[in-house]
Design brief:
The protein is α/β, with parallel strands linked by helices. 49% of the residues lie in helices and 11% in strands. Helix 10 packs across helix 11.
Amino acid sequence: MYEQYYGFNAKPFQLKPDPAFFYGSKGHKRAMAYLEYGLSQGEGFIVITGEVGAGKTTLVRNLFRKLEPEKILAAQIVNTHLDSDDTLRMVAAAFGLPYEDTSKAALLTRLEQFLRTCDQQGKRALLVVDEAQNLSPRTVEELRMLSNFQTADKSLLQTFLLGQPEFRRTLLSGDMQQLRQRVIATYHLGPMDAAETRAYIEHRLNTVGWHGDPSMSEDAFAAIYDYSGGIPRKINTLCDRLFLMGYLEEIHAFRSSEVNDVIGDIQQEFNLPASGDDAQYPPSPPESGLKSDMPANLDNVDERLSKMEKSVISVLDLLKQILSLSSVRNLPKEKN
């Protein structure tokens, strides 16, 4: 893969959130400050919103890395396409509690006992709910009810809600007044500007041992920003493809022309199929009893792309070896 070709010690532009690559842009630093402030308060809700791929999950994982486990017990749930009862089960599971074949009343009792035990041990419980925009108002209300678990002087559970901008509509709806009264801070994480986009790319490269190979021109950085709009996930996707192309074509200096070539490839891959009587988009659902070939979710896209890259690179390396052997065999023999 390209990391070996350029001498990197890891893949710099993976899609999986990794706190080791956390870059503190102005917006990310401010969002982190809100999270740390909320943590210091030890109660209520903190709400962080941002566009898809803005770095909300990486932000929280960076926060988790700073937590003192002997003082704060943190849990995170990311599957929020659930009804309110199932969400309570997810909360219990996130804290390592048994939840199967349990009534709602028994589940709430078990959660309360667990939270009180944590308090007796000198620990605070923190729940982080990712993809909060998928929560129904009833489910949000169930999470609010968990904040009612408290001692005489403090709450037993604190909750951070992370979601896309549309979650604000849920938060501002008429039946969310009680929750809003318990929100102690909110922040919207916006995209990075052009200078931060360049610094973000260089930060990720430096993290894996970059020493200027490959180089990137000013117009290459500008083209990446124009395409990505300063969204970290879009930057990662584009740069990953750019560096893969660099490996395949043995490029050591990227300019805007190479960046635009990759952008064109990406855009072409996501074009709609040609119109026609037999063309249909989106594809028809599979017949009853048959499983669809489409994945249920995109959580392992990065892993699948990595496997595809390895397969392509293995074939290319084999071809290079064959061509090299063929050249040797075809050399003219020396005359005695």
